[in-house]
């Protein structure tokens, strides 16, 4: 079909109109850092700028490479954003939108923005730029794709935390693969063209090993090939070129046969697909004679399809009157360029000629497809077809009806309407053949053709009363009558089979539609299970029961339903836990009179379905198997929808409860802070006035002062938590000395607990970090207070150790107390969560929660563990944003 003949659909016009005002995304894609993505991107920016296009460089990371910095010369650079609350200088999204260039260059697509930015990820910034009509050039490494994150982690042993959703990558207008061999890349490392200084040596020893580079390069090439293959498929579909197969990939199609050794055929195809590294499909074609197959033959077909699925194939069962046309149509629809069929030996025939085999038919019908023939007929013993008892009875009835119809037509036109011309009589005879063929099939129509010719010759062709003709033209008439009768019988037989297939498909579609409609109207798990139980029972005319899990991890039938099958609870439990089918017709416990199927969606199981199998022919066709699988998927999906809805409602209630609690605590904190401040001031005044008069008064005033300070700190923690969780909160970040923050926090603790001992292990250089001083001081005050309360900080010293490096700063605060219970280390940082041994110690369990919140707000993280010498150890990790200087 030419481009002039192609007419776009209305949906394509809508998509094009939506894309008209949207910018274009071009990704320079590579296996890892150093292959030249940034260089290629900046070279393209120079080329566009030379063409008079407005190009702006938003972000271009040179990592200290002089060559990259040199290629940046001559391009307009967007200043980095220095907004309040950000720990790093970031891409200025608002400045780019205001500048609105034609093309903007943004490096490192998977980058995570600093806290306080509008979007947490850089790709979200780029999405906003694209929506505003700005074209974007960007770079990406293969390890940052979300779908390949676990694969890369398993290869390199390093978990990549900055990832990009695959749909955003697939929606790019253009992806340019920038490739470099591992040897050349390692040479660039040695020359200092990738990383500078010690960083290059560390990278070569860890991530950039030669084996890792080979694997990453293969992943990048395969991912790019998958994208190109998807583009080829989309182009073929949009241009209506599905009638031709494009050999852009080695995809295989295996054509199974019910009466030949298909197991060998499947295994040969699986080995070939594994060697080629390609996808493969396995199909069986249900012809009209499939209905006469025995139960054993149908089981063979189903067994072969299951075997192909286990070996990684995509399977399908097609219904058609012509096997060749069904195979070629499926191959062209799925762009499968290689066909694999079994070779059958020719059998002895009385006829000097015979119809061509499947190989000859495929070669003639699809010359553009590669054909592989495998010798496999000797693998399977042929099974005798089902005795034609019902078919023979139907044929005898058809022959009798043909004889009656012939006699009626002959009597009508020979006795009552003798004036009719022989030509009209011939047409009436042919009409009778058509009616017999439609009602009874091929054999009665052939019989009707023969006796109609004999009757026409006997009664209407001179000389009448004998089987002979005086005019040779009537011999042609008889031949045409016979040929038309045979052709009509053949066509009507195929039409009857196609009508039977269409009715079966309509019935299955109706059943699925009714079940889906009923499931959408149900909102409870029991109601969904009851609807599915009834639908499956009607569709398969068998007894069906659905058992759902209970809170005690048992399985129960539906409320108000009496179990008639009485399945073994152990079998139900095994199927539910393992997620596997068991019972009749399977390889597990095949002797029981029922089949148990787990209701599974994703990784969750929501119950089991029990089907009675009293009928020996139950579920022996692939269509019934697939219909049952579809029912199971619909039921499991509906159960998952109900479970997700319940979780969403619980989450909403929890969020509303949390918001209400925060609002209440914030209000109470504001109301309590003023009287507590006044109370503390009065205690201080009383201490000054009465502290020297009596020791008893001094001790009581000291206790009162300590309790007032504890209440003030608690109220301050609650206020800080409410302020941080409020929308629009921003850090007041500045360069700070970490030692000064810790010493200020320890001084606050020492004023409250004079007997506390703190030991420091700090580096010689000054450790500088960028953050909010009062909030970080709050973190260390809470950690010190926690060590004093629960770690015997008044009896044994608290150790503080600072370990800076080029990437992060680690601060460990350890005590010598009883340590942490292993099961509580995860919940320690949850709001209002307290340990079992804390009941006699005042507090509400919010100190460690605010430590975790403030730390994550600064881009770090905190965790707790038991120290090697005993006691609890809290480790705080903050990013190091500036090389450490010399000690002042």
Average pLDDT, to the nearest integer? 77
Structural class: alpha/beta
Strand order of the largest sheet: 3-2-4-5-1-6
What is the percent of helical residues? Answer: 40-55%
- Give the N-to-C terminal Cα separation: 79 Å
Q: Strand-residue fraction?
A: 5-15%
Q: Which blocks of ≥5 consecutive residues have pLDDT under 50?
A: 1-6, 348-355, 378-389, 883-888
**Overall outline:** elongated
Largest sheet features: 6 strands, parallel
Can you count the helices?
Answer: 25
Integer-rounded radius of gyration = 40 Å
What is the tally of beta strands? 23
Structure report:
With 888 residues, this protein is α/β, with parallel strands linked by helices. It contains 25 helices and 23 strands. It has a 6-stranded parallel beta sheet, with helices on both faces. Strands 9-8-7-10-11 form a 5-stranded parallel beta sheet, sandwiched between helices. Helix 21 runs antiparallel to helix 22 and helix 23 crosses helix 24. The N terminus and C terminus are likely disordered.
Topology readout:
Blueprint: H1 10-20, E1 25-30, H2 37-50, E2 55-59, H3 66-71, E3 76-77, H4 93-99, E4 103-106, H5 122-131, E5 135-141, H6 149-156, H7 166-170, E6 174-177, H8 182-190, H9 198-205, H10 210-238, E7 252-256, H11 262-276, E8 280-286, H12 295-310, E9 314-319, H13 323-333, E10 338-343, H14 358-365, E11 370-375, H15 389-416, H16 422-440, H17 442-460, H18 473-520, H19 525-540, E12 544-549, E13 555-556, H20 569-578, E14 582-583, E15 594-601, E16 604-612, H21 622-690, H22 695-725, E17 734-737, H23 738-752, E18 758-761, E19 768-771, H24 773-790, E20 798-804, E21 808-814, H25 847-857, E22 861-866, E23 872-879
Parallel strand pairs: 1-5, 1-6, 2-3, 2-4, 4-5, 7-8, 7-10, 8-9, 10-11, 18-20
Antiparallel strand pairs: 12-13, 12-16, 14-15, 15-16, 17-19, 20-21, 21-23, 22-23
Helix pairs in contact: 13-14, 15-16, 15-17, 16-17, 16-18, 17-18, 18-19, 18-21, 19-21, 21-22, 22-25, 23-24, 24-25
């Amino acid at each position: 079909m030419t481009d002039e003949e192609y007419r776009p659909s209305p949906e394509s016009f809508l998509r094009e109109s939506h894309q008209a005002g949207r910018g274009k995304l071009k990704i320079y894609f590579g296996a890892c850092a150093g292959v030249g993505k940034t260089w290629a991107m900046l070279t393209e920016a120079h080329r566009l700028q030379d063409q008079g296009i407005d190009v702006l460089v938003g972000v271009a990371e040179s990592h200290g490479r002089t060559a990259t910095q040199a290629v940046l010369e001559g391009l307009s650079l967007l200043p980095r954003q220095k907004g309040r609350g950000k720990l790093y200088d970031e891409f200025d999204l608002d400045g780019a939108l205001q500048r609105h260039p034609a093309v903007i260059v943004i490096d490192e697509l998977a980058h995570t923005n600093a806290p306080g930015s509008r979007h947490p990820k850089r790709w979200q910034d780029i999405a906003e730029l694209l929506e505003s009509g700005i074209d974007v050039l960007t770079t990406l490494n293969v390890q940052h794709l979300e779908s390949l994150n676990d694969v890369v982690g398993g290869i390199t042993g390093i978990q990549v935390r900055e990832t990009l959703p695959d749909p955003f990558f697939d929606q790019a207008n253009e992806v340019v693969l920038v490739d470099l061999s591992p040897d050349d890349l390692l040479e660039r490392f040695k020359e200092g063209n990738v990383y500078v200084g010690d960083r290059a040596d560390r990278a070569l020893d860890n991530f950039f090993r030669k084996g890792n580079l080979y694997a990453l390069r293969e992943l990048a090439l395969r991912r790019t090939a998958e994208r190109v293959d998807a583009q080829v498929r989309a182009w073929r579909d949009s241009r209506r070129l599905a009638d031709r197969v494009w050999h852009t990939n080695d995809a295989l199609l295996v054509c199974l046969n019910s009466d030949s050794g298909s197991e060998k055929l499947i295994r040969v195809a699986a080995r070939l697909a594994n060697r080629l590294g390609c996808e493969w499909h396995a199909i069986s074609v249900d012809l009209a004679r499939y209905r006469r197959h025995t139960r054993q033959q149908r089981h063979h077909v189903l067994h072969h399809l299951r075997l192909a699925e286990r070996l990684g194939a995509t399977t399908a069962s097609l219904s058609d009157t012509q096997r060749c046309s069904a195979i070629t149509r499926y191959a062209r629809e799925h762009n499968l360029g290689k066909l694999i069929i079994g070779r059958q030996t020719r059998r002895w025939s009385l006829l000097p000629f015979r119809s061509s085999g499947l190989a000859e038919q495929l070669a003639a019908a699809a010359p553009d497809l590669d054909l592989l023939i495998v010798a496999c007929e000797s693998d399977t013993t042929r099974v005798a077809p089902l005795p034609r008892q019902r078919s023979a009875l139907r044929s005898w009835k058809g022959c009798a009806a043909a004889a009656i119809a012939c006699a009626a037509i002959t009597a009508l036109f020979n006795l009552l309407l003798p004036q009719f011309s022989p030509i009209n009589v011939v047409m009436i005879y042919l009409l009778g053949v058509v009616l017999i063929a439609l009602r009874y099939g091929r054999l009665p129509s052939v019989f009707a053709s023969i006796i109609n010719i004999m009757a026409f010759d006997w009664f209407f062709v001179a000389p009448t009363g004998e089987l002979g003709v005086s005019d040779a033209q009537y011999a042609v008439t008889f031949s045409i009558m016979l040929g038309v009768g045979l052709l009509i019988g053949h066509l009507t037989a195929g039409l009857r089979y196609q009508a039977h297939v269409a009715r079966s498909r309509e019935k299955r579609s109706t059943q699925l539609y009714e079940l889906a409609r009923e499931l959408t109207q149900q909102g409870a798990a029991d109601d969904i299970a009851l609807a599915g139980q009834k639908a499956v029972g009607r569709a398969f005319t068998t007894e069906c029961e659905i058992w759902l899990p209970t809170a005690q991890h048992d399985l129960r039938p539906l409320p108000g339903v009496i179990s008639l099958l009485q399945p073994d609870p152990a079998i139900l439990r095994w199927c539910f836990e393992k997620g596997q089918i068991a019972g009749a017709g399977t390889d597990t416990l095949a002797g029981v009179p029922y089949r148990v199927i787990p209701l599974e969606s994703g990784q969750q199981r929501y119950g089991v379905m029990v089907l009675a199998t009293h009928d020996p022919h139950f579920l022996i066709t692939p269509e019934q198997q697939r219909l049952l699988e579809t029912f199971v998927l619909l039921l499991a999906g509906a159960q998952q929808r109900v479970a997700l809805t319940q979780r969403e409602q619980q989450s909403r209630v929890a969020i509303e409860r949390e918001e209400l609690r925060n609002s209440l605590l914030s209000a109470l904190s504001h109301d309590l802070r003023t009287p507590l401040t006044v109370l503390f001031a009065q205690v201080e005044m009383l201490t000054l006035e009465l502290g020297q008069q009596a020791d008893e008064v001094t001790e009581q005033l000291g206790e009162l002062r300590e309790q007032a300070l504890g209440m003030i700190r608690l109220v301050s923690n609650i206020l800080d938590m409410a302020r941080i969780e409020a929308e629009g909160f921003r850090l007041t970040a500045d360069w700070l000395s970490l030692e000064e923050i810790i010493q200020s926090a320890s001084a606050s603790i020492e004023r409250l607990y004079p007997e506390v001992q703190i030991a420091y292990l700090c580096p010689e250089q000054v450790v500088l970090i960028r953050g909010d001083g009062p909030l970080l001081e709050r973190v260390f005050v809470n950690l010190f207070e926690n060590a004093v309360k629960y770690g015997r900080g008044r009896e044994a010293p608290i150790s503080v150790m600072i370990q800076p490096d080029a990437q992060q700063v680690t601060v460990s605060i350890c005590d010598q107390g009883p340590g942490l219970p292993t099961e509580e280390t995860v919940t320690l940082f949850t709001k209002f969560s307290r340990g079992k041994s804390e009941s006699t110690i005042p507090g509400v369990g919010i100190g460690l929660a605010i430590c975790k919140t403030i730390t994550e707000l600064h881009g770090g993280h905190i965790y707790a563990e038991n120290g090697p010498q005993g006691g609890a150890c809290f480790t705080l990790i903050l990013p190091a944003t500036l090389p450490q200087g010399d000690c002042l």
